[in-house]
Amino acid sequence: MDPGDEGSTTVTRDRSPSQLRAATSTEKFKFNELEAEFEAVGSEIETVAREVIAEDFWFVASAYRFADADVEELVATRDW
């Protein structure tokens, strides 16, 4: 059951890594833009926040049944 599909009994297969990369690329781009905004005012996304963001990418991937999601691969193109 996908999050938000309460009551659904449909079972789906694991999804491919390429589907996951496509789904996360826009979100990584948004975080990259956010990092640029922080830098423009002399700040940055701190280390703890970076790790939490990466863990959240993994959590969402797991929730949507991307069984073999590798957190480092999920955030590989990050600028933060």
Q: Mind explaining what this structure looks like?
A:
This protein has 80 residues and is mainly α. 56% of the residues lie in helices and 0% in strands. The protein is built from three helices and no strands. It has helices at 17-40, 47-63, 71-74. The chain is elongated and about 40 Å long. The protein starts with 16 loop residues before the first helix and ends in a 6-residue tail after the last helix. 10% of the residues are buried.
Structure keywords:
single chain, 80 residues, mainly alpha, 3 helices, 0% strand
Compile the SSE list and pairings.
Layout: H1 17-40, H2 47-63, H3 71-74
For the report, how would you describe the main beta sheet?
none
Distance between the termini: 32 Å
Strand segment tally: 0
Helix content: 55-70%
Number of helices: 3
Report the mean per-residue pLDDT as an integer.
81
- Give the helix/strand class: mainly alpha
Unreliable stretches covering 5 or more consecutive residues: 7-11
Q: What is the N-to-C order of secondary-structure elements (H for helix, E for strand)?
A: HHH
| Beta-strand share of residues | under 5%
Described by the principal axes of the CA atoms, the overall outline is elongated
Radius of gyration (Å): 15 Å
Summed up, what is this model?
With 80 residues, the chain is mostly helical. The protein has helices spanning 17-40, 47-63, 71-74.
